[in-house]
Design goal:
This protein is of the alpha+beta class and 375 residues long. The strands form five sheets. A four-stranded mixed β-sheet has the order 1-2-5-4, covered by helices on one side. Helix 1 packs parallel to helix 2, helix 5 packs parallel to helix 6 and helix 7 packs parallel to helix 8.
Length: 375
């Protein structure tokens, strides 16, 4: 195995395995947390490998005794109906984001049920992925029949108890993307959820968030979602997800959630949670672009995999995660993006249209889904 297929450390663990499957290249990851008090793979990473094994057929995984080294030989993407219990150490979004990246290239339409923590403070929530990434995914697959996500139950850390259903159609190839004008913000929507706590918590978050957002735009509407939970399973928690929609069909998402119980942190105040989410949304609007920070990497992946044509998108400043993702993407597919800073005109500076934007351009590798069954 060449040195280019050997990686060190647990950083970008998901990205390396997903790109290994898409490229068909086996990889070896060594020195996984060798200096930590708890060395080797963690429970949620082992669960992620099991999920990939369910989605694919013929995947071969070898892990050493201490869990500090792994050899991963990818199989073929199969898809179909799948159920998976996610580790409560991370949110369902940790698993769902990668499943979304693989779903269009499966042999059969992916219909997956994930159980665990739907909303936490670490990973993008299922609400954020649905509201932020679905509109972009529709631009690549053109016909979105069969693209769906349902939150059957919500689950908060540390015990989880949530359940999410996600389905996605398969495509032979993805369409190139040209998305350079995000437009202007026309409305803000959102959902305040409360699990195993008083419904008043959701109402208090709504009032504090609207108090700030109504100073910026008049069209603000936030719904409440109160879940009692199932039996004694699950943990209490609450949070809010806010979505800003533009006149050109771009969606910017921000969220905030309460501190988990028994985490050593003080209890969260609902008003602070609502205010924090509103401030984060305003920061996303200030950064601007056609996709939010959470969806940058998935969008650039699909741009690299689409037909052999030019794709362009305008984003806000690239997040550190996206920059690392681009380097890993180059290792597997050799794809390089042209990155340009869009200079603001004097008129835009006078209008205070946010920070400098970035235009990313690439030519797709022409990735073809050879597993797709002929209709």
């Amino acid at each position: 195995m060449s040195s280019s297929n050997i990686y060190q450390g647990s950083e970008s663990f998901r990205v390396r395995l997903v790109l290994s499957i898409l490229s068909g290249r086996p990889i070896r990851i060594v020195k996984i947390r060798t200096q930590d008090d708890n060395p080797g793979l963690h429970e949620y990473e082992a669960g992620f490998i099991r999920l990939l094994d369910k989605i694919t057929n013929g995947t071969k995984v070898e892990v050493n005794e201490t869990g500090t080294a792994i050899y991963f030989q990818p199989g073929l993407l199969v898809g179909g109906p799948i159920e998976h219990d996610c580790s409560c150490q991370r949110g369902i979004g940790y698993y769902l984001e990668s499943a979304m990246q693989l779903a269009p290239f499966c042999k059969k339409p992916l219909k997956i049920v994930l159980r665990g923590v739907t909303n936490d403070q670490v990973d993008p929530s299922v609400d954020a992925l649905k509201c932020g990434f679905f509109p972009i995914l529709r631009r690549f697959v053109v016909d979105d029949e069969g693209l769906d996500m349902k939150i059957n139950r919500r689950g908060a850390p540390p015990l989880g108890g949530g359940e999410v259903f996600f389905s996605c159609p398969v495509r032979k190839q993805l369409r190139p993307l040209q998305f350079l004008d995000p437009g202007l913000i026309k409305r803000i929507r959102g959902t305040a959820y409360a699990v195993q706590v008083s419904p008043a918590m959701a109402n208090r978050m709504v009032e504090s968030a609207k108090g700030l957002l109504l100073k910026v735009i008049s069209d603000v509407f936030i719904t409440t979602d109160h879940r009692k939970g199932v039996g004694k399973k699950g943990s209490p928690g609450y949070g809010i997800v806010l979505i800003a929609e533009t006149t050109k069909g771009a969606f910017l998402v921000a969220e905030s959630s309460s501190n988990p119980i028994n985490s050593g942190k003080p209890p969260s105040v609902p008003e602070d949670i609502g205010l924090e989410a509103a401030n984060r949304l305003l920061q996303e609007i200030y950064r601007g672009g056609c996709v939010d920070s959470n969806c940058q990497s998935s969008t650039l992946l699909f741009m690299a995999l689409c037909q052999k044509d030019v794709s362009k998108i305008m984003t806000g400043p690239l997040s550190p995660y996206t920059i690392k993702f681009l380097r890993t993407l180059r290792d597997f597919f050799g794809t390089q993006f042209k990155v340009e800073t869009k200079q603001r005109s004097h008129e835009e500076e006078d209008l205070r249209t946010g920070c400098d934007k970035v235009i990313l351009t690439c030519i797709g590798v022409g990735y073809t889904n050879l597993s797709k069954t002929v209709a």
